[in-house]
UniProtKB/TrEMBL annotation:
Record keywords: Glycosidase, Hydrolase
Gene Ontology biological-process entries: polysaccharide catabolic process
Domain Glycoside hydrolase family: 48-323
Keyword Oxidoreductase: no
Alphabetized SUPFAM superfamilies for the sequence: (Trans)glycosidases
Keyword ATP-binding among UniProt keywords: no
One Pfam match: Cellulase
Family the UniProt entry places it in: Belongs to the glycosyl hydrolase 5 (cellulase A) family.
GO function terms (MF aspect): hydrolase activity, hydrolyzing O-glycosyl compounds
Full protein name: Glycoside hydrolase family 5 domain-containing protein
Length: 358
């Protein structure tokens, strides 16, 4: 099997490069479930994890963003057999062991893994729960079902990443999904300070990991990087990340699905693309997506985003591979697979993603 890249990775200006100084453009897919109420990556009841990993590589993705919840790490519950039906060798394992088994299946396939702290309370991330709007929620007191301090958050990172210190294809820690605070009030300075502290702790464990820092306002806004970049004692570790959906655009009554291209492009430049243009650091668009049956706004947003990502040649991560959401087994309209976790929905989305890969 030909390697996709040679670890370890580092940053070189706006690019991520491997040990041979060759650019690795992250072409990622999100594989969720570990962050949700069932505590397990999706599809393990339907297909062997190694078959899913092989399919991901065959489709052209070189990396996977794999989310977890802090509650998953703290409680580490046993996973019911029915959720692992296609992977009987995992029967009897707890959540962290299953998560590690999925990581190993991916890295054995040569796929890079980006571990992501997605949410505090194990649940679907709907952006509404204040208890999940930040990496810590102890300031909210009894309002939160599962509470943690900043120290707890960092300790959970250390617990999960300790399993991957010697796996060179686990390449990055995406430190927190969509920090936003109360209705979008999270400041970049507060978040950058916490990300710097957490990243330093992780780099003491493994200095080769990349530290991925999402923007504030649900990962929409990285403009604070101009005044307050995040730097680590280990050089060339910082990667920034933005999320761009049709409804994105905090603080503006005109979301991206309604904007003409010049307005959309200006927003991208102001929010994150200046980091690429000025060769400051890589930016990975770690989440974006659209339904298999798009409405007019979805299609308009998608066309604009594909044009822009191609123009700036940004790293990307599509949401998502999962055909079903954990809660109530709800259909995931953004999925690129059918319910068998094998058959590709070969529509406009995958065709455009493959063009970006090239």
């Amino acid at each position: 099997m030909e390697p996709l890249f040679t670890p370890p990775l580092r940053t070189r200006g706006r690019d991520i490069v491997d040990a041979h100084n060759k650019r690795l453009k992250l072409a990622s897919i999100n594989w969720y479930g570990g962050s949700d109420e069932l505590f397990v990556p999706g599809g393990l009841d339907v297909r062997p994890r190694r078959a899913i990993a092989a399919l991901i590589r065959r489709l052209g993705f070189n990396s996977v963003r794999l989310p977890y919840s802090d509650e998953m790490v703290a409680k580490n519950p046993p996973i019911p057999h029915e959720l692992l039906a296609a992977n009987p060798d995992l029967f009897g394992m707890r959540a962290l062991d299953v998560f590690e088994a999925v990581v190993t299946a991916l890295t054995d396939e040569g796929v890079a893994v980006i571990v992501n702290d997605h949410i505090t309370n194990a649940a679907w991330c709907d952006g509404m729960n204040l208890c999940d709007s930040s990496w810590k929620n102890d300031q909210l007191g009894p309002l939160c079902r599962f509470r943690q301090t900043e120290d707890d958050w960092i300790a959970h990172w250390e617990t999960i990443m300790a399993r991957f210190v010697n796996n060179p294809h686990v390449v990055a820690a995406d430190l927190r999904n969509e920090p936003r605070g109360l209705w979008g009030t999270m400041t970049w300075t507060a978040w950058a300070t916490a990300a710097a502290r957490c990243g330093e702790r992780l780099l003491k464990m493994q200095p080769n990991w990349l530290m991925i820092i999402e923007g504030v306002s649900s990962a929409n806004d990285l403009s604070g990087v101009r005044q307050r970049p995040v730097r680590y004692s280990v050089p060339d570790r910082t990667v920034y990340s933005a999320h761009v959906y049709s409804w994105s655009g905090w603080g503006n009554l005109n979301p991206y699905k309604g904007r003409e291209y010049p307005s959309f492009a200006r927003a991208m430049e102001q929010n994150w693309a200046f980091i690429l243009a000025e060769n400051i650091a890589p930016v990975w668009i770690g989440e974006f997506g659209a339904p298999d049956s798009p409405n007019k706004g979805d299609a308009h947003y998608w066309k604009n985003l594909m044009k822009y990502l191609e123009e700036v040649d940004a790293d990307f991560g599509y949401w998502a591979i999962n055909p079903r959401k954990p809660h109530m087994n709800e259909r995931e309209s953004y999925s690129i697979l059918k319910d068998d976790w094998e058959t590709l929905i070969d529509d406009y989305r995958m065709q455009d993603l493959q063009r970006l890969m090239k």
